Amino acid sequence: MARCPGADKAAVDSGGASGKERDRGARQGHEMQAAIPFPNIGPEIFSIDIGPFAFALRWYALAYIVGLLAGWRIMVRLMKRPALWGAPAAPMRPTQPEELLTWVILGVVLGGRLGFVVFYQPGYYLANPLEIPMIWQGGMAFHGGALGVVLAVLGYCWRNGLPAMRVGDAIAVATPPGLLLGRLANFVNGELWGRPTDMPWGVIFPGERAQFCPGFTAPCARHPSQLYEAGLEGLVLGALMVWMVWRRGALRVPGQMIGVFLAGYGAARTFVEGFRQADAQFTTPDNPWGHVIRFGAGPDAWGLTMGQVLSLPMLVAGLAIILVARRRHAAEDG
């Protein structure tokens, strides 16, 4: 989810203003009423030097590790509660989520990386194909990772003769903790921040790119959109799904929790995109919002960002899956 090399320059170029123009815009821009300084915390938890090599544990890597382990433990707990499924048995043995974890990790890493390459920086990586495997330089996309997980789960279920829809329901319930931790790591890394704002909860993110805010006086505060996503995709969606499973028996309807997750994530991401800074490669002076689909012309035209283009189909598909799952379940009970 970090940016690839060259993105910083693209972001500055996309501003389309000289130093004098930026200074003049700042003098004539919004006055920041209040703001929250960025916490004094770095992206690395610790670093160890062994000879010429440096090894570091980063918050982002820790978020992936803890999120995957938390998801694994949630799935094990679900498999130990067959009564939640309303069937003779849970779809997997309690030992099988550990096997599935390896498949999921591969799906997340390969899908997330290829999704970033295809959706966000195809031109750059077409010119620099040797950098595609260099995930340590940053560059992961959630939508690509989600597609990778779907393919991994389908492959695992086919190989082991498991009901893919029910296994997918369990994975859907186990996913929000990882989203919560991942978005918190984005915040700690000082990346994927939001648009400039004069709201009192705006955060002053460090760095030249974060402080390039035409029309706003320095220091520039921005929406902490990473925290918005952590709250909606992680806490709110996760709490809703836990309530539906443990209080409403939602796992008794195969596919329902898959639909709830897709619709919930799609709605949350589409909403937060209205506060999130547009991707640099899609931003121009005539398109400051970074729309990839536009309706009208000029800087005030309405449109959709890449995040919304990828998330709205998730919302529609999720609602359709919920409707089909409930109708099918009702027909079987009837």
Would you mind describing this structure in some detail?
The protein has 334 residues and is mainly alpha-helical. Helix content is 55%, strand content 7%. It has helices spanning 7-15, 19-28, 59-79, 96-119, 122-127, 142-160, 164-174, 176-189, 225-248, 256-272, 306-333; strands spanning 36-37, 44-50, 53-58, 203-204, 293-295, 302-304. A hairpin with a 2-residue loop joins strand 2 and strand 3. Helix 4 packs antiparallel against helix 6 (142-160). Mean pLDDT is 84; it is low at 1-29.
Short summary:
The protein has eleven helices and six strands. With 334 residues, the protein is mostly helical. It has two domains: 52-85 and 164-334, no CATH class; 92-162, no CATH class.
Main pleated-sheet profile: 2 strands, parallel
Percent range of helical residues? 40-55%
Mean pLDDT: 84
- Which structural class do the helices and strands define? mainly alpha
Strand order of the largest sheet: 1-4
Strand content: 5-15%
**How many helical stretches?**
11
Number of domains: 2
Rg calc: 22 Å
Which overall shape is indicated by the principal axes computed on the Cα atoms? Answer: globular
Low-confidence stretches: 1-29
Q: Report, as a whole number of angstroms, the end-to-end distance.
A: 47 Å
Number of DSSP E strands: 6
Order of helices and strands: HHEEEHHHHHHEHHEEH
